[in-house]
């Protein structure tokens, strides 16, 4: 069942105002008749000419909007200077109401164009269906620059223009929830390495569980890749790395490690390099983003360590890759555990808890309960120390000095961090990142 209707009048020029009024009136009449039991929200998208007032642009639509009392409270006219701006505004309205099924009514010549905008600004969470807006025969003067027939691919030049328009619009948006904040470890020497752990502030993601510096997009969440890319651009600008030389692990909750420059595995939770100026990153939204640095051999790494990856030894697998690939000495490698869910909040079923109990009984609290509390950080430290990492070369939540501690519990600090455990399936993601300075 359609939850919202988008009527796209964006490209229709002002000299066809009379036609637009008729088109809009007939379209709304059809929506009203077909939606007596469930009236969808209706958004009319039109162009706000530069230098004109919003009210003036909407005046010619008012006669067509009159008389639709059942739709009155469900109808909104959205004017903007670009399609990207108008569509992103409508996306915000849809997300506020958690709507996902949208019918788009638009001129045939706009359909392929609109699909490109939608592909960039929406994810697979949303379902779109398209219906032609029947433009009357004497409106052949419509100036739609693409002159595309439905089903044809847009020229690459037009695709690039759309991407550029979206990027420029997103770059113009203000940061939300405060300034962008980066946590840094005193253990990693900043004269050799650039590194940090992100928090949730300073980006443009607006959905509550994703706001505001969400750094991961998936088909199950409402933040599209273009928004995550803009958040990353702002992070890179603040931190001082090149977002075009950025490599994030492909999360598999296992222990495979990618050696940058060699054949890339399909999935991997660890990544290492000795190349300067290349930034490695691992996500975390309860799982631990772990950073590795060898200031002697000048090599670094990043790993994503959830409970499964911790049990499978992903951190030591990353260490071993640095040793074998770059000749690192185990005694020189520094390891920092970033913000992650703490034993104060994190529970697992008893069967899974047994595995942590085998590593060390102190990794489990209330072991005899159905869902014991688990300390994945302690388990990670123990496995690293057993593998040869010096205890003093590991920074985690054992540091009690609040000025030095960066291994906060993500679930306990909703103002600072995302948490899958706390927020559910539509959760945001922070990252740990590291690179070797040039």
Automatic annotation (TrEMBL):
Subunit relationships: Interacts with FASN. Interacts with SDHA. Interacts with ATF6, EIF2AK3 and ERN1.
Keywords of this entry: Acetylation, Cytoplasm, Endoplasmic reticulum, Hydrolase, Immunity, Inflammatory response, Innate immunity, Metal-binding, Nucleus, Peroxisome, Phosphoprotein, Transferase, Zinc
Lineage: Eukaryota, Metazoa, Chordata, Craniata, Vertebrata
Gene Ontology CC: endoplasmic reticulum; nucleus; peroxisome
Coiled coil: none
Record field: catalytic activity: inosine + phosphate = alpha-D-ribose 1-phosphate + hypoxanthine; guanosine + phosphate = alpha-D-ribose 1-phosphate + guanine; S-methyl-5'-thioadenosine + phosphate = 5-(methylsulfanyl)-alpha-D-ribose 1-phosphate + adenine; adenosine + H2O + H(+) = inosine + NH4(+)
Biological processes, Gene Ontology terms: inflammatory response; innate immune response; regulation of defense response
Source organism of this protein record: Loxia curvirostra
Protein's UniProt name: Purine nucleoside phosphorylase LACC1
Keyword Nucleus among record annotations: yes
Molecular function as annotated in GO: copper ion binding; hydrolase activity; S-methyl-5-thioadenosine phosphorylase activity
């Amino acid at each position: 069942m359609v939850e919202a209707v988008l009527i796209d009048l964006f490209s229709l020029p002002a000299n066809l105002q009379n036609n637009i009024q008729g088109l809009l009136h007939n379209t709304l009449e059809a929506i009203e008749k077909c939606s007596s039991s469930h009236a969808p929200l209706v958004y009319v998208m039109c162009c706000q000419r530069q230098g004109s007032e919003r009210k003036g642009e909407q005046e010619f639509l008012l006669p067509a909007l009159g008389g639709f009392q059942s739709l009155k409270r469900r109808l909104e006219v959205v004017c903007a200077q670009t399609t990207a701006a108008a569509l992103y505004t409508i996306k915000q309205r849809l997300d506020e109401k958690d709507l996902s099924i949208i019918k788009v009514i638009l001129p045939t010549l706009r359909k392929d164009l609109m699909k490109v905008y939608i592909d960039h600004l929406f994810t697979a969470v949303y379902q779109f269906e398209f219906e032609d807006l029947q433009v009357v025969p004497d409106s052949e003067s419509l100036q739609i620059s693409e002159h595309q027939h439905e089903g044809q691919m847009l020229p690459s030049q037009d695709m690039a223009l759309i991407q550029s328009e979206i990027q420029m619009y997103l770059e113009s948006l203000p940061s939300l929830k405060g300034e962008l904040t980066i946590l840094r470890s005193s253990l990693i020497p900043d004269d050799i390495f650039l590194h940090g752990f992100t928090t949730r502030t300073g980006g443009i993601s607006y959905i509550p569980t994703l706001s505001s510096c969400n750094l991961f997009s998936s088909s199950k969440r409402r933040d599209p890749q273009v928004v995550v890319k803009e958040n990353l651009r702002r992070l890179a600008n603040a931190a001082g790395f090149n977002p075009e030389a950025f490599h994030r692990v492909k999360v598999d909750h296992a222990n495979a490690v990618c050696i940058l420059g060699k054949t890339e595995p399909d999935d991997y939770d660890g990544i290492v390099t000795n190349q300067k100026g290349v930034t490695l990153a691992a996500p975390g939204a309860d799982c631990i983003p772990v950073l590795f640095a060898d200031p002697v051999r000048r090599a670094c790494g990043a790993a994503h360590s959830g409970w499964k990856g911790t049990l499978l030894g992903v951190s030591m697998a990353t260490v071993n890759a640095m040793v074998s690939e770059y000749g690192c000495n185990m005694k020189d490698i520094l390891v920092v555990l970033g913000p992650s869910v703490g034993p104060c909040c994190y529970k697992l079923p008893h069967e899974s808890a047994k595995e942590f109990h085998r590593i060390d009984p102190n990794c489990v609290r209330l072991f005899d309960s159905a869902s014991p509390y688990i300390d994945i950080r302690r388990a990670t430290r123990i496995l690293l120390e057993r593998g040869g990492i010096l205890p003093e070369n590991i920074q985690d939540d054992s540091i009690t000095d609040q000025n030095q501690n960066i291994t906060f519990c993500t679930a306990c600090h909703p103002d600072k961090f995302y948490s899958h455990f706390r927020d559910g399936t539509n959760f945001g993601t922070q990252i740990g990142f590291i690179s070797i300075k040039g």
